C-alpha cells in the first residue's frame, strides 16, 4: 500500500501589515505626529482580511479519509472478486487520520482475483493535485473522464514461473484525497490472465464506488 513552512502567498499577504506598522510607528514618534498625521494614518490603505478557511491555496475539501471497506458495495465485490468475503479486510496503516485501505481476495476454482482500495489525505486540494501529477512517474497511463476531479488508469501484464497476472491501477483525485484502486487476477488452470479490458473495467467500477464513498469523509 501506498503522506509546511508558511506559504509564500500568506507571507505576501502579511507583508503590508508589517510595512504599515512601521509607518505608523514613525508617524506616532516623529516630529510630524499629531491630529493631521493621525488622519493620514487612518486614510492609509489597510491590508486585506485573511482568507477564510477553505479558500485559496490552503483549501481543504475533506478532513479525514472514509472508512474504506464500506465504500465498495457487496454487489461490486462479488462481481469482481467471486468468493471473497464482501466485508473486506482493512489494511493496517501508520496513521488512519491520513491513510486507510481495504482489500478483498479469493480463489474460486482456478481463478484468483485481488482488489484493494486506498485513500490518502493531503493537507490541501493543491497538495493533492501536485501529488497526483507527481505520482504518474514513468508509467504509461491514460486519462479517465467522469471520476473525481481528475483520474488516470494504468494496466500491466507480468509473468512469473510461467504464470501470467494482469493488473490495472486507477488513481483518482477528489479534493484533497487521492483514491488508488488496484485490481488484478490470474487464471491458474490456463496459466493465463483476465483480458486487459476486463481488469480495466473492474478497476474503474470499484474506483467509481470508492470515490462516491469519499463524500462521507467530509
The oligomeric status of these chains comes to single chain
Report the radius of gyration as a whole number of Å: 26 Å
Poorly predicted regions are: 1-55
Overall 3D geometry? globular
Strand content: 25-35%
Helical content, roughly? 25-40%
Let me know the average pLDDT: 80
- The figure for the number of domains is 2
- Major sheet: size, sense and barrel closure? 7 strands, antiparallel
CATH topology of the largest domain: Jelly Rolls
What is the H/E string?
Answer: HHHEEEHEEEEH
Structural class: alpha+beta
Regarding CATH, which class of the largest domain?
Mainly Beta
**Secondary structure tally: strands:** 7
CATH architect. name of the largest domain: Sandwich
Biggest sheet strand line-up: 1-2-3-7-6-5-4
Helix count, DSSP H or I runs of 4 or more residues: 5
N/C terminus separation: 23 Å
Secondary-structure topology with pairs:
Blueprint: H1 8-29, H2 35-43, H3 74-80, E1 89-91, E2 99-108, E3 111-121, H4 125-134, E4 142-143, E5 150-160, E6 163-174, E7 177-187, H5 196-213
Antiparallel strand pairs: 1-2, 2-3, 3-7, 4-5, 5-6, 6-7
Q: What does it look like?
A:
This protein is an alpha+beta fold. The chain has 2 domains: 8-50, no CATH class; 68-217, Jelly Rolls. The chain is 30% helix and 28% strand. It has helices at residues 8-29, 35-43, 74-80, 125-134, 196-213; strands at 89-91, 99-108, 111-121, 142-143, 150-160, 163-174, 177-187. It has a 7-stranded antiparallel beta sheet. The two termini are 23 Å apart.
Structure summarized in a few sentences:
This protein is of the alpha+beta class and about 220 residues long. It has five helices and seven strands, in the order H-H-H-E-E-E-H-E-E-E-E-H.
Amino acid at each position: 500500500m501506498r503522506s509546511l513552512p508558511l506559504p509564500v502567498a500568506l507571507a505576501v499577504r502579511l507583508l503590508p501589515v508589517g510595512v504599515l506598522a512601521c509607518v505608523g510607528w514613525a508617524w506616532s514618534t516623529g516630529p510630524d505626529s499629531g491630529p493631521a498625521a493621525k488622519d493620514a494614518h487612518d486614510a492609509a490603505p489597510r491590508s486585506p482580511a485573511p482568507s477564510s478557511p477553505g479558500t485559496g491555496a490552503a483549501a481543504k475539501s475533506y478532513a479525514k479519509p472514509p472508512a474504506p471497506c464500506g465504500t465498495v458495495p457487496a454487489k461490486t465485490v462479488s462481481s469482481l472478486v467471486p468468493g471473497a468475503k464482501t466485508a473486506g479486510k482493512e489494511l493496517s496503516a501508520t496513521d488512519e487520520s491520513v491513510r486507510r485501505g481495504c482489500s478483498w481476495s479469493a480463489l474460486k476454482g482456478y481463478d484468483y482475483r485481488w482488489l484493494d482500495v486506498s485513500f490518502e489525505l493531503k493537507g490541501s486540494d493543491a497538495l493533492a493535485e501536485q501529488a497526483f501529477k507527481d505520482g504518474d512517474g514513468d508509467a504509461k497511463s491514460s486519462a479517465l473522464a467522469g471520476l473525481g476531479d481528475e483520474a488516470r488508469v494504468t494496466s500491466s501484464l507480468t509473468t512469473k514461473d510461467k504464470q501470467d497476472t494482469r493488473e490495472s491501477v486507477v488513481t483518482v483525485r477528489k479534493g484533497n484525497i487521492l483514491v488508488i484502486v488496484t485490481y488484478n487476477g490470474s487464471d491458474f488452470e490456463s496459466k493465463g490472465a483476465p483480458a486487459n479490458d476486463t481488469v480495466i473495467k473492474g478497476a474503474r467500477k470499484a474506483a467509481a464506488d470508492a470515490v462516491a464513498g469519499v463524500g462521507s469523509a467530509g
